[in-house]
Amino acid sequence: MSAIDYKTQTIKGSMRTKGRFGLFLQEVWKYRLSYLFIAPFLIAFSIFILIPVLAAIGLSFTFFNGMEAPSWIGWANYEYLLSADSLFLQYALPNTIKFAVIVGPGGYIASFILAWLIAQIPDKARLWYVLAFYAPSLAGGVTMSIIWIPMLSGDRIGYLNSFLLGLNIIDEPMLWVLDKDLIMGSMIAVTLWSSMGIGFLAMLAGILNVDKQLIEAGRLDGIRSRLQEVWHITIPVMKPQMLFAAVMAIVGAFKAGNIGVQLSGQNPTPQYAGNLLVNHVEDYGLIRFEMGYASAVSVVLLVIIFFANRLSWKLFGTKGDE
Prior knowledge:
Layout: H1 3-30, H2 32-59, E1 62-63, E2 71-72, H3 76-83, H4 86-119, H5 123-139, H6 141-151, H7 159-166, H8 183-193, H9 198-208, H10 212-220, H11 226-237, H12 239-255, H13 258-264, H14 277-287, H15 291-316
Antiparallel strand pairs: 1-2
Helix pairs in contact: 2-15, 4-8, 4-9, 4-12, 4-14, 8-13, 9-12, 10-11, 12-15, 14-15
């Protein structure tokens, strides 16, 4: 290719780019009123989500202690994280995957089953059941201190120990939140109990909005049981709500971190048995002040959540959503 031909193609490409950019600006100006309405959300999203994420990605390639200017170290943080950080490789990452695999799908399935059961209740009584299941997700630390800490206390007067000792199921009190072999189970149980959050409400709304005529038509077409009704009618109709609930369940499962610290009263948790990736980020970012390394851990967590959410889109999304 001659120099003249190369320059000609470069000019044509530049003109096409300018032309496309001009068309984009025309479209933006055409719908300027709509963009004005969504501007507050875009500004808030950029300030509180987009910019911090980009800043974390940038800081993950630096050494930054929060006081001195960041110094570029390339991939060193990621190399250490994936090859030499024993706390990450032996505790934080495996604990997070185990916790998320049980709590995410477990809470999601429980939310759907409870939402479907509550949808069968008459309207007047339904509100109270919804409030009873949704309230724990709002109470947070209050229920932790009032209910679960006394419940899982490791002495004989702990509610659970007292109950099991009374039934002669155990011979001595169990250290439910201080034993490295038991703390993960306690964390999972407490998190599942409080997992009926906004995703639960979304699925309940989806079930209640299923057109009754579709159910009647399904019965005429051969559906004979409630299970077939749920599988062939309810779930396909409420896929958007199920997708939203799945995303919320995944994010909630992976971002959980303080639950182990709150239950045990120790940071780190006993022998790191309850430490999750969020705890690892807080350890390096807020205690050791190694902000660059903490950013690298948070980026790894972000990538894991991203791929988990992509799986949810594959299961419950449509081609238009993709």
